[in-house]
Amino acid sequence: MHTPMNAFAIAALVFSLTACGDKTQVDTAASPNTPAPVAAPATPAAPVAENTVGKSVYGKTCALCHAAGVAGAPKPGDKADWGPRIAQGMDVLHKHAIEGFTGAKGLMPARGGATALSDDDVKAAVAFMVDQSR
After folding, report:
1. Torsions phi, psi of 130, nearest 5?
2. What is residue 28's DSSP assignment?
């Protein structure tokens, strides 16, 4: 049963909810003290494509030594060990991985011992490990 008091309460509720509604009316007469519109934030950069070639080469060849640190091989993700190597630049890392390198910390066989790997495959694997270690 609806009593006059219930009808009044419902009307008051509807009125108050209407007052809380969407306020999208725009004042077309902007005052001189109106601040300039704020620029929209820059759109985020597109996601970087996964280095699937490097990941595959790492898994099939490089991980044999790098995952366990055999012969001084820096483990991917070890920022302390990779940091000085990365600081030398990618050209040096590529050269050492392709041609081989013997240093104070150990030995890097040419192409990781997989002579059939192309230069691009080796570079992709180096990039994969560097990306894991930044």
Report:
1. -65, -45
2. S
| Residues constituting the chain | 134
Rounded Cα–Cα distance for residues 35 and 17 (Å): 31
pLDDT in tens, 52-83: 999 999 999 999 999 999 999 999 999 999 99
Cα distance between residue 21 and residue 40, in whole Å: 26
| Structure tokens belonging to residue 62 | 């490089």
- Tell me if 93 sits within 8 A of 86, measured CB to CB: yes
For 41-61, letters b (16+ CB in 10 Å) and e give eeeeeeeeeebebbbebbeeb
Q: Taking Cα atoms as reference points, which of 62, 85, 98, 95 lies closest to residue 134?
A: 85
pTM above 0.70, yes or no: no
CA max distance for the chain: 95
